[in-house]
């Protein structure tokens, strides 16, 4: 794969990003090349080249796609990482992480989301989408510790699905999710009260046996919201089973309250034939969510006003450009992208859907992918028989996924592997525990999802023309 002098300048740039990153597939390395002037590509924030611990003392999500989002004041903070981990070289951290993994054996399971940096993913026993990792957590009752290289809601879910003796550990507590933070339990309770005032008792079925509203929360939400769904006859979904879950909900309710991601809700319901006029948005800062009573009465899906800042970056113009530059390109996007982007793509689906589509494509395929850059660069390196690039030219990882770094990993792991007695006794650092009152109904909502069975290979599908 080489550059051609007849390529337009922006095409050369895209090819260069692909070629430079291919040997290591490392977004860290790409960002270093950009910030040292060795690559002409661009990044959304040069602070991304700094160590993640530089941001632990500062408010905000850190550099990356969510840096403009408002972080709740009570969002978990990461305390300062001991100097020995901050100062250790990559080789030293690698040696120490591998030593703990070898000494703990099956007592430790490490899970890594597709969006994690490669420097972390290399240690994971399982790499997958949020649904697959939830199942992996459930499938390892023998492990004393589950180290979750992902974000806070994923670690909470692993805690809900694993045994009470098992410790789930999030290496950096600041690895939250700005979208998950866009709906909190007080706002959802208030919304529910307003809907009750509108529709009458929400737990009483009408003549057709269905209740007025079924709450559906995306996996990207706090355990408190999953608990809310469990208490109110609702369910959890992921991007790999959203359609299956919405069908489940429509069998039981006249309409769905879907939070926090408006885009996943809208894209999924639209593909199921729900008209856009029957999908009003619920803005938690406005009376009746900013709607009138008639709109709510006619609604089928009430969409919470949340979004993912990583997927909001993708545009129809990027798709048009990719099609012009690479005739025959297959455009695949994640369903957290806005609806016009999903409509302009060829296919959409969860991260596992995207991986599987690339894995099963004939050699020489060209893919323009609309999802997080760490995953796209890794796929480009893993499948050199294809041409794979990110729809967005600007390198801009998920701010919170990027807070996990080998330094934090070595810190939590070495603490776990310390002797069982004495002053250096093992300490479980950064354990994520869901309180019992929330855990019981949250587990119920998750079990409903697991029983609803997702389609194979990460859900999603082709976009109807
Ligand atoms: P997946 O369920 O596809 O892994 O997505 C999780 C996520 O956070 C996407 O932004
Ligand atoms: Fe949250 Fe978006 Fe990051 Fe996924 S990519 S963890 S939805 S902010």
Main sheet record = 5 strands, parallel
Radius of gyration: 22 Å
The number of helical runs is 18
Number of strands: 16
What is the residue-averaged pLDDT? 92
Q: Give the helix proportion (percent range).
A: 25-40%
Classification by helices and strands: alpha/beta
Bound molecules: 1,3-dihydroxyacetonephosphate, iron/sulfur cluster
Low-pLDDT residue intervals, each spanning 5 or more residues:
1-23
Q: Could you give the distance between the termini?
A: 32 Å
Report on the structure:
Helix content is 38%, strand content 13%. The longest helix has 17 residues, at 436-452. The chain has 18 helices and 16 strands. The strands form four sheets. A five-stranded parallel β-sheet has the order 7-6-8-10-9, sandwiched between helices. A five-stranded mixed β-sheet has the order 14-13-11-12-16, sandwiched between helices. The protein is of the alpha/beta class and 465 residues long. The chain is globular and about 65 Å long.
Output the keywords.
465 residues, 18 helices, 16 strands, disordered N terminus, binds iron/sulfur cluster, globular, single chain
Summarize this entry quickly:
38% of the residues lie in helices and 13% in strands.
What does the secondary structure layout of this molecule look like, with pairings?
Layout: H1 9-21, H2 27-35, E1 42-43, H3 83-87, H4 90-104, E2 108-113, H5 118-121, E3 126-128, H6 130-138, E4 145-149, H7 152-161, E5 167-169, H8 185-199, E6 211-218, H9 223-231, E7 235-237, H10 242-252, E8 253-259, H11 262-271, E9 281-282, H12 293-298, E10 301-304, H13 316-325, E11 330-333, H14 339-344, E12 347-348, H15 351-359, E13 366-370, H16 373-382, E14 387-390, E15 394-395, H17 406-416, H18 436-452, E16 461-462
Parallel strand pairs: 1-15, 2-3, 2-4, 4-5, 6-7, 6-8, 8-10, 9-10, 11-12, 11-13, 13-14
Antiparallel strand pairs: 12-16
Helix pairs in contact: 4-17, 6-7, 9-18
Bound molecules: 1,3-dihydroxyacetonephosphate and iron/sulfur cluster.
């Amino acid at each position: 794969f080489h550059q051609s002098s007849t390529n337009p300048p922006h095409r050369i740039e895209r090819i260069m990003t692909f070629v430079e990153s291919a040997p290591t597939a490392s977004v860290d390395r790409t960002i270093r090349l950009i910030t040292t002037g060795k690559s002409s590509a661009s990044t959304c924030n040069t602070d991304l080249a700094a160590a993640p611990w530089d941001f632990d003392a500062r408010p905000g999500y850190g550099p990356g796609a969510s840096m403009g989002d408002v972080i709740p004041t009570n969002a978990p903070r990461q305390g300062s990482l001991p100097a020995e981990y901050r100062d250790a070289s990559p080789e030293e951290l690698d040696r120490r992480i591998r030593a703990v993994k070898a000494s703990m054996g099956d007592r430790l399971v490490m899970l890594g989301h597709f969006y994690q940096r490669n420097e972390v993913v290399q240690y994971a026993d399982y790499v997958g989408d949020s649904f697959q990792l939830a199942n992996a957590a459930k499938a390892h009752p023998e492990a004393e510790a589950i180290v979750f290289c992902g974000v806070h809601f994923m670690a909470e879910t692993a805690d809900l699905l694993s045994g009470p003796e098992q410790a789930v550990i999030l290496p950096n507590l600041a690895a939250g999710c700005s979208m998950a933070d866009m709906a909190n339990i007080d706002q959802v309770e208030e919304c529910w009260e307003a809907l009750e005032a509108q529709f009458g008792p929400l737990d009483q079925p009408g003549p057709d046996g269905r209740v007025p509203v079924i709450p559906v929360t995306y996996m990207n939400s706090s355990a408190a919201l999953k608990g809310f769904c469990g208490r109110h006859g609702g369910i959890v979904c992921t991007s790999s089973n959203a359609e299956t879950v919405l069908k489940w909900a429509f069998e039981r309710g006249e309409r769905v309250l879907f939070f926090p991601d408006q885009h996943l809700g809208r894209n999924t319901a639209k593909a199921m034939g729900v008209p856009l006029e029957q999908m009003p948005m619920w803005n938690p800062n406005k009376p009746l969510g900013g709607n009138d009573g008639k709109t709510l009465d006619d609604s089928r899906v009430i969409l919470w006003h949340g979004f993912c800042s990583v997927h909001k970056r993708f545009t129809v113009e990027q798709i048009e450009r990719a099609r012009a530059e690479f005739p025959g390109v297959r455009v695949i996007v994640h369903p957290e992208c806005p609806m016009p982007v999903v409509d302009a793509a060829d296919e959409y689906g969860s991260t596992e859907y995207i991986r599987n589509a690339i894995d099963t494509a004939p050699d020489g395929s060209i893919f323009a992918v609309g999802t997080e850059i760490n995953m796209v660069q890794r796929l480009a390196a893993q499948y050199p028989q294809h041409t794979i690039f990110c729809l967005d030219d600007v390198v801009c990882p998920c701010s919170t996924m990027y807070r996990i770094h080998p330094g934090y990993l070595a810190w939590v792991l070495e603490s776990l592997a310390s002797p069982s007695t004495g002053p250096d006794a093992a300490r479980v650092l950064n354990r994520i525990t869901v309180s019992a009152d929330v855990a019981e109904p949250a587990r119920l909502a998750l079990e409903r999802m697991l029983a609803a069975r997702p389609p194979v290979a990460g859900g999603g599908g082709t976009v109807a023309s």
